[in-house]
Amino acid sequence: MQKSYQRCIEQWDRIFAAESTDRAPQTPDSGNASFDAGVRWLVQGSSTVLDFGCGNGSVLFFCALLGTKKHIGVDLSKSAVCAAINRSKHMKTGVFDFRRGGVERLSEIASGSIDAIILSNILDNLYPEDAETLLTESTRLLKPGGKVLIKLNAFITDQQISDWNIQVMEGNLLDDGLLLWNNTTEQWKIMLERFFAVERYEELWYPEHEQINRMFLVSKR
């Protein structure tokens, strides 16, 4: 898997290598109230949380500050995993296990051992076949009634694709600087309902980026 995402890995390695790792969050607040409400929904009744595409670990740290106990983070970027490990040393609560790799690392985790899963801006940045594998593995890993927070990038229209000179790789798969599986919200809803019960959908506005993200809160049937 890593070879397919080499350009993405190199870019995220540069980004996370430049970040300071001498502190961890002190409060469970990302700065976006709607996303934070989604995280609070996710952690209710949850003890063990998996974040696939965890980056520097921030969302898992928010979960720990809200009371979850065991946390597993997986990311393709070596710099991201190193940053997450270093930041976790500054956490006063929670147990953390950060691993470098892709969907193949999920096979190491026991079936039915996870209460909650975070897929934040990762599902639509995978090749479709890897996204399918991720969703299949997520259903295997979750306990009955387990929850998933799925955050996706905004849908890019044909006009925006043209105006922004984005390369169409094939079908809905775009090269937007990295990789974007550009499904409409309805297409994502139909896909997710094959795996989960959709509890809630919300659009998140990020004024600092002038960008909308889409958030699905789903649970295992």
Strand adjacency order, main sheet: 3-2-1-4-5-10-9
The oligomeric state is: single chain
Largest beta-sheet details: 7 strands, mixed
**Overall average residue pLDDT:** 96
Q: What is the helix/strand order? A: HHEHEHEEHEHEEEHEE
The low-confidence runs, each spanning 5 or more residues with pLDDT under 50, are none
SS strand fraction? 25-35%
> Judging from the principal axes of the Cα atoms, what is the shape?
globular
CATH class: Alpha Beta
| Number of spatially distinct domains | 1
Distance between the termini: 29 Å
> What is the gyration radius calculated from CA atoms?
17 Å
Q: At the third CATH level, what is the topology name?
A: Rossmann fold
Tally the helices.
7
Helix content: 25-40%
- What class would the helix/strand composition place it in? alpha/beta
Structure description:
By secondary structure, this protein is an alpha/beta fold. Helices cover about 30% and strands about 30% of the residues. Strands 3-2-1-4-5-10-9 form a 7-stranded mixed beta sheet, sandwiched between helices. The chain has one domain: Vaccinia Virus protein VP39 (Rossmann fold, 3-Layer(aba) Sandwich), CATH 3.40.50. The chain contains 7 helices and 10 strands. The chain is globular, with a radius of gyration of 17 Å.
